[in-house]
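In response to the reviewer comment on reproducibility (Comment 2.3), we provide here a single inverse folding case reported in full, input and output, so that an independent group could reproduce the run without further information from us. The structure tokens appear first.
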């Protein structure tokens, strides 16, 4: 019997990022951008008061930021994309974040 997926899949082209990288990707108003995204998620439960909780942030190969967490109302997995593609010079910033990330992960191994 197929089991309902309860954990997020993190794809090979996604790297986990933290507050510093979010600030670089989203600019000075990054906290507002995250806050708006967290309170504007799609979920089938349809609860108007829901928000994204327990989330991690990722950068994908399209230079979008993805927040992966759970719906506060029904506790199933939910995700929210924040597009950054239209920002000037965002590809250079994203490349730098990726390079630093690779350096870090190669140190660990
Ligand atoms: Zn829900």
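Designed residues, in position order:
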């Amino acid at each position: 019997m197929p089991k309902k997926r309860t954990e997020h899949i993190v794809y090979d082209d996604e790297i986990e990022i933290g507050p510093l990288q979010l600030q670089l990707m989203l600019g000075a108003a990054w906290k507002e951008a995250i806050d708006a995204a967290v309170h504007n998620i799609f979920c089938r439960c349809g609860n108007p008061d829901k928000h994204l909780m327990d989330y991690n942030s990722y950068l994908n190969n399209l230079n979008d930021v993805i927040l992966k967490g759970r719906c506060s109302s029904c506790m199933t997995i939910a995700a929210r994309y924040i597009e950054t593609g239209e920002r000037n010079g965002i590809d250079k910033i994203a490349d730098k974040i990726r390079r630093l990330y690779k350096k870090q992960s190669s140190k660990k191994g």
